[in-house]
Amino acid sequence: MLVMPVILLQTVGCFSAMHPLQRVLRAQRCLRWGPLASVSRLLLRTCRACCNLSSTACPSPETQQEDGVRKDFSSRLAAGPTFQHFLRSASVPQEKLSSPDVEDPPPYLTVDELLGRQRKVYLETYGCQMNVNDTEIAWSILQKSGYLRTSNLQEADVILLVTCSIREKAEQTIWNRLRHLKALKTKRLRSRVPLKIGILGCMAERLKEEILNREKMVDILAGPDAYRDLPRLLAVAESGQQAANVLLSLDETYADVMPVQTSPSATSAFVSIMRGCDNMCSYCIVPFTRGRERSRPVASILEEVRKLSEQGLKEVTLLGQNVNSFRDNSEVQFNNAVSTNLSRGFSTNYKAKQGGLRFAHLLDQVSRIDPEMRIRFTSPHPKDFPDEVLQLIHERDNICKHIHLPAQSGSSRVLEAMRRGYSREAYVELIHHIREFIPGVSLSSDFIAGFCGETEEDHLQTVSLLREVQYNTGFLFAYSMRQKTRAYHRLKDDVPEEVKSRRLEELITVFRKEATKANKTSVGCTQLVLVEGLSKRSATDLCGRNDGNLKVIFPDVEMEDVTNSGLRVRAQPGDYVLVKITSASSQTLKGHVLCKTTLKDSSACC
């Protein structure tokens, strides 16, 4: 489908950045296959819209100059391009623009119209850590196009919501937010630049045109793989049109985009190493909103981590929807026939993948960059924990001894319905294996209450798993059926909402009781803590996180600095300190600080 600045269900996105021959092949492929029967109707709708554009489609201009700009835009839009334009482009070399920060504009836009011209962008992030990282990627792209960032909603020219679709409640939060923003948009003074509102991320990808039809005040949609197209989408929106790009990619990883850290005082950062998921668990919407798995080249990840180290950050978290299934195929010499090693007793819903640089290699290389920088990773799948990964976690002081191991259920029958690829017995065996490999490891997990067909006996088996494992941290939710998933098409959401709520409360109660027991084993121990800043509940206390990712609270007092003998200091964000734990709950540890230290010398004050 050709890229046009009108309401599109799916657009090709960044068409003009391709080689001319690629444009033709992509256009032909869209016309033949995707998105199936709707393409021809969309193309017809696009052509009609281009021919019928007039000044009445745009907001009334406040000045004669703005009127001239919009009329010029509409006339160029009505004039093309057509499909023949892209066919001709295959034999006509495209001249490169002199500006390195602006993509080649489509024929209906100029380079100047792709620039932000210092318009202010307000970004709100909802959902997981990947969305936090996506916000930084989107802002990096917009910043290079000349936009400014604002933390004041009232002065924003553009408001972008980075959204989540994992549960119905997450989407309802966005609908509620849009109602508030609609009032803000209506009240915007006519003398100011019209306010533009955009929906980014998974909700845009899942609902597509439903958002544009339901909320006319939304100006742009951008799926998780379309952030490079944001300058074009916003330029189109300036003409008064709605614009969308929700095309999923087989290769987009934003490897060449350096995320812009949003907090100047941050001590840690997220580094995305792969995107998408191939597991196709029956309850999960992620493969449909994030696409297939693809991994960044190792070299680009290492470069980003080095830059973060040079900026003084003390912790990075490697991110991915299935982070430990990382597989870099960018270097041909490593594309051998070696198959993926899975955890014992685990299987996949797809054919075994071969070749590439795997997660163990990446983890090894990242941990060598800065011995004083902590390394974490999330969110993994239990199937992808071969011994070489566990050995690295055990050996390297700067790889945190914390593993997130999503179980989802304690019932083998429910796990099979979820298509998780393991039984309860295999999962428990992996837990024992990890604890043998990494003594003192901190474990966290995810659980779903009330999945399709879950009986009371299934629920009790999940309760017993919580008691058996004694996780340090847990994330528990009631099941929320999502359209497009296998469960939506093949299973019945037959557990009443009141039963889901009761079971969830029971799981939370048991988790907190067992987590408190697990965390109390730390009382009397000395733990290394990375200071994050002041405690939210007390101006006289500091907070940080230990190796196991538990929050630790301690008084803000002077202490010895073992890195400068005899000097007494107060802890600052980014410092490593040793804290003796005096009490514990299901979520927090408390203690008193002993000294400031380093990762390497953390045993000096023990």
Task: Indicate the topology.
Blueprint: H1 20-32, H2 38-52, H3 64-78, H4 83-89, H5 111-114, E1 120-125, H6 129-144, E2 148-149, E3 158-163, H7 168-187, E4 196-201, H8 202-207, H9 209-214, E5 220-222, H10 230-237, E6 243-245, E7 268-272, E8 274-275, H11 286-290, E9 294-295, H12 298-310, E10 315-319, E11 327-328, E12 357-358, H13 359-369, E13 374-378, H14 387-395, E14 402-404, H15 412-418, H16 424-437, E15 442-449, H17 456-469, E16 473-478, H18 486-490, H19 497-520, E17 526-534, E18 541-546, E19 551-555, E20 558-561, E21 568-570, E22 576-584, E23 588-597
Parallel strand pairs: 1-2, 1-3, 3-4, 4-5, 5-6, 7-10, 10-13, 14-15, 15-16, 19-23, 20-23
Antiparallel strand pairs: 8-9, 11-12, 17-18, 17-22, 18-19, 20-21, 22-23
Helix pairs in contact: 1-4, 12-13, 17-19
Textual characterization of the structure:
Strand 5, helix 10 and strand 6 form a beta-alpha-beta unit. It contains 19 helices and 23 strands. By secondary structure, it is an alpha/beta fold. InterPro entries: Elp3/MiaA/NifB-like_rSAM, Methylthiotransferase, Methylthiotransferase_CS, Methylthiotransferase_N, Methylthiotransferase_N_sf, MiaB_methiolase, rSAM, rSAM_horseshoe.
Distance between the termini: 65 Å
Radius of gyration: 26 Å
Q: What is the helix tally?
A: 19
Widest beta sheet: strand line-up: 2-1-3-4-5-6
Instruction: Indicate the structural class.
Output: alpha/beta
Overall 3D form: globular
| Quaternary structure of the protein | single chain
Largest sheet: 6 strands, parallel
**Mean pLDDT level:** 85
Report the β-strand fraction as a percent range.
15-25%
- Helix % is 25-40%
